[in-house]
Amino acid sequence: MQFEEAVSFALDHAHESMNHALEHLERELTKVRTGKASPAMLNGLMVSYYGNPTPLNQVANVSVSDSRTVVIQPWEKSMIQHIEKAIFEANLGVSPQNDGELIRLSIPPLTEERRKEMVKKTKVMGEDTKVGIRSARRDAMEEIKKAMKDGYPEDLGKRKEAEVQTLTDNYIKKVDVVVEAKDKEIMTI
């Protein structure tokens, strides 16, 4: 039954797209500073390693020594200047302190105003994710309607549409939970 396969594929694709959107949000939220030190804030930082852009975690050990300090220990001492340069260029809002062997990043506490800005930013990221989820729902609904127009039983089509809506509602709730948890983390001093 070709319609069943098309509708099933549309549902699977919608689920996959929604899951991808949620995972992307979670990755992006790890980059949002909360005033606490976290190696995740350096994810995606590229360092020039013998002329090639290389992820920081492939040229150095990144760890947290306390709640406000990130420690970067390069595997080669010659990399210290390159790592420092990459941190400056990334404009993270922190100044690296280099002692010749390690680089320390002291994370300043966030002001109340800055915390509120960060919360707004996370809410915007959450809304963008919801738009992606709704887009996946729209695509699935269009595929189901097309199948019904081409002869797929209407009662089954309506059931599948309800399934897509339930899936969408569940993912929207998950986005709200993830954003709310991040907002709480940001506002905690």
Description:
This protein is an alpha+beta fold. It is built from 4 helices and 6 strands; from the N terminus they run αββββαββαα. The strands form 2 sheets. The protein has a 4-stranded antiparallel β-sheet with strand order 3-4-6-5, with helices on one face. The longest helix has 38 residues, at 112-149. The relative contact order is 0.18. The mean pLDDT is 88.
Output the keywords.
189 residues; 4-stranded antiparallel β-sheet; 59% helix; 15% strand; alpha+beta; Gyrase A, domain 2
Please outline what is shown here.
The protein is an alpha+beta fold and 189 residues long. The protein has helices at residues 2-30, 80-90, 112-149, 154-187; strands at residues 46-49, 52-55, 60-66, 69-74, 96-98, 103-106. The strands form 2 sheets. The chain has a 4-stranded antiparallel β-sheet, with helices on one face. Strands 1-2 form a two-stranded antiparallel sheet.
Write the layout of secondary structure elements.
Blueprint: H1 2-30, E1 46-49, E2 52-55, E3 60-66, E4 69-74, H2 80-90, E5 96-98, E6 103-106, H3 112-149, H4 154-187
Antiparallel strand pairs: 1-2, 3-4, 4-6, 5-6
Helix pairs in contact: 1-3, 1-4, 3-4
